[in-house]
Specification:
Helix content: 25-40%
Largest sheet: 7 strands, mixed
Number of helices: 4
Shape: globular
Number of strands: 7
Amino acid sequence: MTAEQADPQIDRPTVADGAALWRMAKDSKVLDLNSSYSYLLWCRDFAATSAVARDEHGEPMGFITGYVRPDSPRTLLVWQVAVDEAHRGRGLAATLLDGLVARTVTERGVTTVETTITPGNTASERLFTSFAERHGARLEREVLFDTAVFPDGPHDPEVLYRIGPLAP
């Protein structure tokens, strides 16, 4: 962010943010777009493990959706990260990720972050690699879902990035 721009407010999404999150995911042209309904539900049911960045007018300009894995309650799985095109290239995704992880470490005792990234998604690869480096955490990668398991046609493999342990 430049000196002229205010620092974004990072907080929990609300149902009223669902449409903006859906639009940002759609406009990214990289993310798998879920139904608009799912973004509304996500903002209601997983707000505690998700984050939205707001501009000086309170409008969403980026988001991260995530959840704590039911079978691994100290693991935050980051589902989607998107930044509105007008706000890209300013480190907003890293600010969102740092803020969300700090919150879930404090509130839920999270020690590990996971996400999946398709090969060639350089922006996401950089985001999570640099996160691990900033936090002095180990980064492990392995294919979680190979191309063959997707029932709806050709799909790139999803590579699991596991980052941790994170310091409290």
